[in-house]
# Entry
Amino acid sequence: MVLAIDGPAGAGKSTVAERLARELGYFYFDTGVLYRAVALRSLETGTELADEAELGRVVASIDIQVRPASAEDGRQLDVFLEGRDVSHEIRAPRVDAVVSQVAASPAVRAGLIDLQRKQIQGQGTILAGRDIGTVVCPDADLKIYLTASPGERAQRRLTQAGGQPEQLAATQHALEERDRLDSSRAIAPLVAATDAIEVDSDGRSIDEVIDIVRGLLTQCIQARTAPRSDA
# Structure
């Protein structure tokens, strides 16, 4: 089974996908870590982010390894860039500031798509991202589009980061700008697949959202394995 979970930043995709995968014994993969790794490498090498040729060269030569988390220190995956553990570094504010621009690059998206598809494992895989159901795995067994209002997502981000209440407006503005960039890019924009099931996480706990997604996945598995009767 392949489960695709797409949605905007802060909707809870990664948390839901990681916890559900752990519960079911599936492999969890957040495709966003690849774009973050490319963004970090581009910053480190002084790459001009508006130059497609330069970004293409970065992607063509980059070494990214993604593995299940080896430590319980807040990481959901181990991410290695050129042999260096950057699992936390790719979440730094300087990466946040440029990752949408990097992810909008046709050269970057084309260069990473095969690597994303190779993450699908035989025991079952849950992938979280923004174009899983539309581009990376359009034939996924189940597609979920997880969403929430900008205000709710901003409050969650602020809580996770241990921020102050007065930072809420700025956090929400940053998320809305990220939404605008992700949904308006020419290549693989953030959009729900036509056959995706939308799950609104507003006012719901992570456990409640996981219950909903687990139920949908169970229904999907049952439908796939139900005995067929001759017409």
